[in-house]
Amino acid sequence: MTLTHLISKNIKGLRYKYVTFLLSSILSVTIFYLFASFVMHPNVAYGYQLHAERVQKGLVACEVIVVAFSFFFVWYSSSAFIRSRSREFGLVTVLGASKKQLSKMIFRESMLIGEAAIGAGVILGTLLLRLFLSAMSVMLQVDSPIEFALVPWAIVLTLAGYSALFAVVAIINICTLKFGRIIQMVKESQKARKPPVFSPVLGIVSVLCLGVGYYLAWTTEGRTVVFRILPVTGIVSVGTYFLFTQISTGVLRFLRRNKGLYYRNINLLTVAELGFKIQDNARVLCTTAILSAVMITSVGTLNIGSQLLVEMRETQYPRALSIAIRGTASLPELAEEIEREFESDGLKIESGLVFPGVMFEYREKGVYRDPLICEEDYNQWAIQNGAPYLDVLPGHGVWVREYPWDSEYPTTVWGHLESRSPYRGQDPDKDKMSFVVDDEILMPIMNVPYSRVLVVDAGEMDTLFELAAPRDKMVIASYEISNWTRSFDAVKRIRTSLTKQAEQADFEILDFSSRVEPYQETRQSRSLTMFIALFVTVLFSLGTGSMLHFRLFTDLEEDRARFLSMRRLGLSWHEIKSIVTRQAAMLFFAPFAVGIIHSVFAFKALSGCIVGDDSIGKSVIVQLTVRYAAVPIGIFLALQVMYFLISRNAYMGAIVSKESDYR
Hints:
There is one protein chain. The chain contains 21 helices and nine strands. The protein is of the alpha+beta class. β2 and β3 (367-374) form a beta hairpin.
């Protein structure tokens, strides 16, 4: 028998173990190839698309995650394969195979599986590329869809990169394989396994660790979360490990003492098998539970943070559209143009006004420049927006701004028109003016940086207009729209039109501020962020699912012999399938359930830190968890169910098969 024939027999005989490894590797290659094709796409690489640079950086970060995940996943999987085949390698060594021959066989097997995964991944990625580019176009809201194009360098990078990855992992596994240890592992596999022993002391330690960790997480305030996060993670990790090694053993021992339950149907066999399975896989179960909690909490917290940024745009920009112009732009024409653009897109104007002002420079805890406006214009705006009516006396004023100022009213403000400011070389005592500020109204007319406006007497405002130089005069536009989230195109047209007019006319745009533009950009950033987060969720789910699949198949030979013995003693295949189903369900879903419980307490600490409320109650935590962690939990659960069904069916197929694995 040639080495090639032996390798093909090995792969065929171990197809139940290789299937999920191959599928997960194919998916990793596919994701990497899709991201590489997008990053290297001409429309993105040369910046033809909106926010292309930011998206590039995000997807490059994704590719780094994919490569890191692929390396550790392939390394762990290959190591698990080698450990599970110790009897086979021992037999081949006893029959005279040299270390070089065995190393060559392992390397060629790994590369054969790897190249098959690479080829299938690139083909699948090519088939999905058009759909992926269309999805990215929708997510980025580009004017025209990104055209389908095969990127040769993406194909070369995927083929070369993953070929090198599989080769490096194969070499690492060969170098770490101790051939003397193989014979020892074969001898140890012949010994009878000792049943798991429950330690009450370690069980109490588990309960205390989990209790203390949960208490610290639940009582964490925003200021202490940074100092508690690492200790809490360590304490809960220790408690989780002993939960699977000790508490689970204690529960199974309790079930064995319950004679009525223990001897009912096939519970005796199920409980006995579960004891050994939990003992053998305690580390994997603990690791999966902790990583599940980290993944769910991270994605959920990231979802909260990004959603809060979107919602904050409305408070950061109190007006849907705010324009400040220096010069003498036509007020009626500007108002008519703004309203025409909004109405053409079916937008409903709740309030809107264009009115004149002058720039006033004054000193109040620093040097400021803010607009002065007439009380008549303010009152017209106040009627539309439900603000208080003002009747300002000559020489007096009222602040209209967003935030309260630490001042006691009345107070006096001294200053100049901007063109006559002493900071521009003018006489500080010449044309100096003052206003006695009687009060303030916290309802801004404009967005930052002109959210502070001083309302003065109408007659005094007429005098100021006569004294003002052209650079002192202003035109202010303030609009609020009911359906402002759909105003992006109209605002864009207004900005473009004003910019062109400013180039031809005698005025300057000091500020053009809209709520919808930063809102739209934040939404796009949130979409990209959540895309990356969900992508990491999928990758992590695939990795943990494959890892648990490998653990299920680790003792396949012993399990097959044991179940076939049960079959000869009279158990039906249906009963054996029930035992296998319960074991697999525990292996796949127990750490997931523990991870969800961990994430609830972690979510309480981190979400409280984000929203700035340290007194979040249980009901609010439940709402936040359901609202923001439901998606990663749902994806993880769906993939776990998929892996559970595939692994259970493959495992049963391997048990039922009467032929040798090397047929």
